[in-house]
Specification:
Length: 250
């Protein structure tokens, strides 16, 4: 591995940041161009609800609302959709500083992390969001018409989906803690009740006071925690045992 001077590191960092910024700008332009289609995808659960169980309409409250919501939506979606590209640029910058066995460990986390993020967003859009909207909008007084602000709804929705994508990184987090030696499959199993309860509380806080919606988030999180335990048992423990044997044989 070639040794680089401090100035060379700064130059490489500068080049990496320029490439990432270029990726984000191009992605933003594309997402801005197709922003109407993205908006319609996010509005679909709300439109379905307003056409059925709830009386109401989607409105914009100021002359700038549609413009601002379009810009913010383009920014967030560009950040998400281009993440494999700018993650790859970050990886290229970090990889030379890692040993080969460390590279082999990190690569799966990047790929699995992106897959889990997409899974969280998809589940949020098709399961959690419809239940969330139906529960909130069906709560309390009936026979009133809803007037939903376009900007507030779109920004709330995209932030909620990003949050769910991040929450679905739970197995990755468990595996990282396992590789750091902070948890084992045995300690994770002992913590099951505590973790299940904590996830239930978190699900209740992130969803309205409705059991069905809470379970819609809680059950996938439990499954992800169990996947994390399985990953620690099948990946982390054998890896650490091999490392210990290799060190013992030296």
């Amino acid at each position: 591995m070639k040794e680089m001077s401090f100035i060379e590191h700064l130059e490489e960092l500068r080049s990496t940041l320029i490439r990432i910024l270029t990726i984000l700008l191009i992605s933003f332009a594309i997402c801005y161009f197709i922003g109407e289609s993205i908006s319609e995808i996010l509005l679909a659960p709300l439109r379905l609800l307003l056409d059925g169980k709830i009386q109401g309409k989607i409105v914009y409250l100021s002359v700038l609302d549609k413009v601002l919501s379009h810009l913010q939506l383009a920014f967030w979606t560009a950040l998400i959709l281009s993440s494999p590209l700018w993650f790859y640029e970050l990886w290229k910058f970090i990889a030379p500083a890692l040993y080969e066995h460390e590279k082999r460990m990190v690569r799966p986390f990047v790929l699995v992390g992106f897959f889990l993020f997409v899974l969280g967003v998809v589940l949020g859009h098709f399961v959690v969001l419809p239940l969330f909207l139906e529960t909130l909008m069906g709560f309390g007084v009936v026979d009133v018409e809803a007037a939903i602000g376009l900007k507030a709804y779109l920004i709330l929705t995209v932030k909620m989906l990003v949050l769910l994508g991040l929450l679905f990184q739970l197995p990755n987090g468990v595996l990282i803690l396992g590789f750091m030696g902070l948890v084992t499959k045995y300690s994770l199993r002992r913590l099951r009740r505590t973790i299940y309860f904590s996830l239930a509380v978190m699900s209740a806080l992130l969803t309205p006071a409705d059991v069905l919606t809470m379970f819609g988030l809680w059950l996938p999180m439990i499954v992800l925690y169990e996947v994390g335990i399985l990953g620690v048992a099948l990946i982390v423990h054998p890896y650490l045992e091999r490392q210990n044997r290799d060190e013992g044989s030296r």
